[in-house]
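At this stage, I put together a protein sequence along with its fold in token form, as given directly below:
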Amino acid sequence: MSSRNHDRNTVLDLSAAEASDAPDATRAAVESPSFDEAVKTVFGLNDRDLATLTAIQSKPGITTTDIADVIDRDRSNVTRSVTVLRETGLVTRRRRIMEDGGYFYEHYAESTEGVERVLTDAIERWARDAVESVATFDWTVDDS
């Protein structure tokens, strides 16, 4: 029995389909995405957002200034990434009042279960939308 090798893990072994004349024989191999690839694809995140998420996961309660130091980025860029991560539901923040009257935010990553739930729900919505996009795509070719 043969299998197709790719740079990443293949989740669909076509060897059985290749042996038959069934319509499924034309299916392409689907590669299993990493966590980073799944999050980037579904939420539109970039490497800087993932670096921010990793910093928050590694030190719960980390401040924007500390994140900027850890990942060597400007605070304004970190603030943008934190905002994106909060919008996805992967990160929350808590406002802390300082004794001298100011305040700052501490950032927290969702629990493992929370991340799984948020990401699974988003992937399911994304997959439904992707299937709908394919189903409604205009496949006609304009030969003009």
Q: What stands out?
A: The beta strands are 62-63, 91-97, 103-109. The helical segments are 15-18, 35-43, 47-58, 64-71, 75-88, 112-135. The chain has two domains: 1-32, 34-132.
